[in-house]
Give the backbone structure.
Amino acid sequence: MRFSFVFFAWFGIIPFMPDVVRDLALTPEQKWNSVVLAVAGTVFFPAFDWEIMR
């Protein structure tokens, strides 16, 4: 589960960001927020997942 979420959060969304921005008509601020959330998910989810799985 941990690997799947981290992989999707970072490698699954970021390469398609130009398409996502165009399709959803995101503003630059919204684009920046999505990048920050992807990085935060990649960094923090494994720590939370470790606590859940313990």
About this structure: The chain has a mean pLDDT of 78.
